């Protein structure tokens, strides 16, 4: 007890001494002054040919769809925006904005439905306009569900409510300028600033010329048999001149120049371009050979005229199978230039439009591969960029 009393006395003396050294009633140290928080928005650098958009519908919980903004030079994710329920995305050809078509319900999975076209600032990723649409296609996200004219003045929104139609949105006013009814036809392939073309169920094309307050429609003759050898929706197209290469399930390439009076040239075979026999169609469906397949299965580098197609070995009805190789073809000479073996099968192939192009592939796990096209080597692998990577959008497409 004596030892404890001495210890307590010593502690008391120290406390008193400390109190004597400080002003009366003041704490040993001033309370910290909390700084007022200020929010700001980090601006991204201007859009470049190697800054791309990647569509991810997140198929197993599709209400959570999104679009990734990727710096392909660094293999870096810069940002992300929502693209709810089977959304689609298209970019202004000069990178001034990008547009997301999406659908939401007032109570999550039910209630009032709203079909929307959101306009995004590409540097802040803020919505600058949120337009309500008369309707929008809700099948699956396809690149040609939502497209844009070459000058960026019109966005074309494919719709199936209550029938096949296309809403033409003026990007200056953000209003629907005209609705074009297209019974039996689907999707949009823009040509110049004057109109677009759609694929029809009988194997023909519908060409839509947009006027001030109406649309004139012409039709081609059927050029493919939808029952025996349909063409892929994701066939690559160039909006500036309407040059389009419709690729069939068997591997035929139909060169077309889209306009009010579309011209379709004689098809050539991808397999024959590689020195093989042309692939069979649905008349002989069990022949195994190299065939095109995937989702965004083909991309075109406009300046070089090089076509990149995801290819796999299989029978006729394997058009959804991911490619184990990317074949590079010259559309002028109809020759195979190179076969790029993939580390993992890819359902997509995308390409940038500059003089030093990059190529993009994916895998089932959602990894995203960035290739240098000149060397044919992978320069970046972005592990699990998303759940269901469907397609890419690059500047100038």
Automatic annotation (TrEMBL):
Spell out the family assignment given in the record's similarity comment: Belongs to the aromatic amine dehydrogenase heavy chain family.
Which Gene3D superfamilies does its entry note? YVTN repeat-like/Quinoprotein amine dehydrogenase (2.130.10.10)
Q: Where is the signal peptide?
A: 1-29
Task: Give the organism the record lists.
Answer: Asaia siamensis
Q: Which lineage is the organism of this entry classified under, starting from the top rank?
A: Bacteria, Pseudomonadati, Pseudomonadota, Alphaproteobacteria, Acetobacterales
User: Does the record carry Signal as a key word?
Assistant: yes
Keywords, ordered alphabetically: Electron transport, Oxidoreductase, Periplasm, Signal, Transport
Q: What is this protein called?
A: Methylamine dehydrogenase heavy chain
Q: Where in the cell is it found?
A: Periplasm
Lineage: superkingdom = Bacteria
One of its Pfam families is Me-amine-dh_H
């Amino acid at each position: 007890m004596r030892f404890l009393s001495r210890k307590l006395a010593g502690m008391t003396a120290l406390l008193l001494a400390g109190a004597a050294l400080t002003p009366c009633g003041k704490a040993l140290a001033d309370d910290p002054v909390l700084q007022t928080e200020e929010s700001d928005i980090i601006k991204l650098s201007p859009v470049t040919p190697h800054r791309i958009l990647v569509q991810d519908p997140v198929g197993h919980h599709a209400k959570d769809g999104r679009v990734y903004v990727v710096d392909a030079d660094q293999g870096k994710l810069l940002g992300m925006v929502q693209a709810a329920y089977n959304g689609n995305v298209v970019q202004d050809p000069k990178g001034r904005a990008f547009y997301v078509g999406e659908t939401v319900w007032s109570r999550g999975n039910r209630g009032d439905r709203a079909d929307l076209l959101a306009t995004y600032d590409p540097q802040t990723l803020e919505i600058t306009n949120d337009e309500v649409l008369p309707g929008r296609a809700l099948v699956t996200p396809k690149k040609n569900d939502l497209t844009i004219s070459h000058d960026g003045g019109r966005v074309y929104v494919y719709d199936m409510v209550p029938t096949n139609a296309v809403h033409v949105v003026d990007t200056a006013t953000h209003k629907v300028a005209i609705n074009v009814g297209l019974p039996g036809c689907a999707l949009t392939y823009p040509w110049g600033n004057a109109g677009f073309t759609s694929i029809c169920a009988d194997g023909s094309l519908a060409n839509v010329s947009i006027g001030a307050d109406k649309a004139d429609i012409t039709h081609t003759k059927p050029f493919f048999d939808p029952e025996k050898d349909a063409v892929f929706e994701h066939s690559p197209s160039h909006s500036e001149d309407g040059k389009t290469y419709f690729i069939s399930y068997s591997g035929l390439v139909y060169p077309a120049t889209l306009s009010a009076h579309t011209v379709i040239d004689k098809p050539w075979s991808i397999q024959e371009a590689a020195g093989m026999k042309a692939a069979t169609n649905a008349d002989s469906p069990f022949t195994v050979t190299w065939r095109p397949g995937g989702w965004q299965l083909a991309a075109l580098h406009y300046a070089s005229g090089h076509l990149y197609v995801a290819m796999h070995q299989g029978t006729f009805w394997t058009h959804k199978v991911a490619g184990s190789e990317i074949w590079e073809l010259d559309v002028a000479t109809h020759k195979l230039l190179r076969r790029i073996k993939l580390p993992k099968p890819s359902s997509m192939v995308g390409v940038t439009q500059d003089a030093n192009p990059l190529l993009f592939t994916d895998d089932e796990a959602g990894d995203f591969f960035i290739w240098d096209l000149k060397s044919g080597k992978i320069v970046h692998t972005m592990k699990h960029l998303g759940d269901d990577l469907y397609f890419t959008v690059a500047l100038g497409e």
